[in-house]
From TrEMBL:
This is DUF2237 domain-containing protein. Residues 1-22 are annotated as: Disordered. InterPro entries: DUF2237. It comes from the Bacteria.
Length: 82
């Protein structure tokens, strides 16, 4: 069996923390690390607008409301002026 390669960013470098308050990422490590148990493939970190979050909520993909039973703190917040 081959050894798992470390996660890399799109430029081939090491992942950098993206969200630490609250702690984001599938492993709640602040990065976009993933593994075989991540069935949803949580591998993207992005700055989004309030309009994007509202659109996602309107189509049933609420990215900002915490869901404690899934240990989901709400992963997205819009940045003012973006």
């Amino acid at each position: 069996m081959s050894e798992r390669q470390p996660d890399r960013n799109v430029l081939g470098g090491s992942l950098q923390p993206c969200g630490t308050d609250p702690l984001t990422g599938f492993y709640r490590d602040g990065c976009c690390s993933t593994g075989p148990e991540d069935l949803g493939r949580h591998t993207i970190c992005a700055v989004v607008t309030a309009e994007f979050l509202e659109h996602q909520r309107s189509i049933g993909n609420d990215l900002s409301t915490p869901v404690p039973e899934y240990r989901f703190p709400g992963c997205c917040r819009a940045i003012a002026g973006v």
